[in-house]
Amino acid sequence: MFVTSQSSIMAPSLPFEIIAKIIENTYHLHMDPPKVDIKTLSACAAVCKRWHRFARGLLFFKVDGALDNERYFRVLAGPGGLGTCVRSLDLDVKRVCTKPVWTMALSYCPNLYELCLDVPSDAPELIELEVIQLKALHLRIRALTFTLHGMQGELCVLYQLMAIWPSIQFLTVSMLPGSTPRLPGERPPFSLYELTLSTFCLLAEPIMRWLLPPIPEGQKGSLHILSFTTGADQDLNALMEYMPYVRSLRILFRHPFPQGFLERCSALEELIFDVSDVAAESPDPKALVLPATIEHLKITGVNGAEVEPFAMAFTRSTLPRLQQVSINTYEMPQLPQDRYIDLSKVCSDRGVALVADSPGGLSWTSEYPVPVDHFPRDRTIENLYRMNIMD
């Protein structure tokens, strides 16, 4: 009888490059809204020192300090330099006895790429001490999500942040309707790659012109991705100059476009329509003339009944470069060929891929704010790592 030792039956160790790929594959839980698989990554971090260093970089890639700033301050400031792992940070503009405490968290994150900032209505602008502290950090923030709370909020904090960090290329502005923000002053030298306006309508034209200034003669517009809500009788003049350079247009479709708007989108590769709140006077989707350059169409809505007519009309239109049609609703997930029988046949006949996303993901804000080689800009580990590039 042969006796086999325990060591002789152990599986050979894998090269760490393969282990790293396996750990990366666990990063995203397959659910909507997207979440990080903290449980699995924490277990990986406890295996050995090498796994620990790699897994903690993913565990602390994005930190939400908005709910408990002081707790996260202690974690980031503690031993081990966890703050150096952080690329994306959620914060509230919080002051204690008029002294800023939120700026302290930024000082622990020297490699920060994305800042998601919630600003209360009682903080109309940054105080002098906050401005001094932020400038002293020498951060190069690339992406800013600016959420303004309250009906009478001001955008002065946004103007100040853009002056402190003209490196910002990806900007999301979220605010309630009803307020009339003060107009900005001198414009810092920033250029936006992506602009998302979660504002129910465009901002006042002087503010839009501040965000998107006239394009110098002989140059191309920097804006590649644009998201906004179509409003009734909305003046889109501030956008028109940039539309020939926009590659992805994301629209909360409530009202018709001005005549000739879509025709100006001569470089458009991706069109995303959210039809969950379409107004009664919106045009028949068959009447919309889409740019022939589109490669990816995405239609989102509450249910398939409101989404499918748009998807059918767009897919049947003359789009020679169309490669993928994506559907996203709140309904329970089904295979596209089972839920969208007619649409599935049209796509199959055209050789177009049909993708039905998981329910609940009616926004595109889960994407990583990075430059795009090809649309759709999927939430992949490769795109996440692009947030490591700080030059």
From TrEMBL:
Pfam families in UniProt: F-box-like (PF12937)
Residues covered by the F-box domain: 13-60
Signal sequence coordinates: none
CDD domains: F-box_SF
Listed InterPro entries: F-box-like_dom_sf, F-box_dom
Full protein name: F-box domain-containing protein
Source organism of the structure: Hericium alpestre
Lineage: Eukaryota, Fungi, Dikarya, Basidiomycota, Agaricomycotina
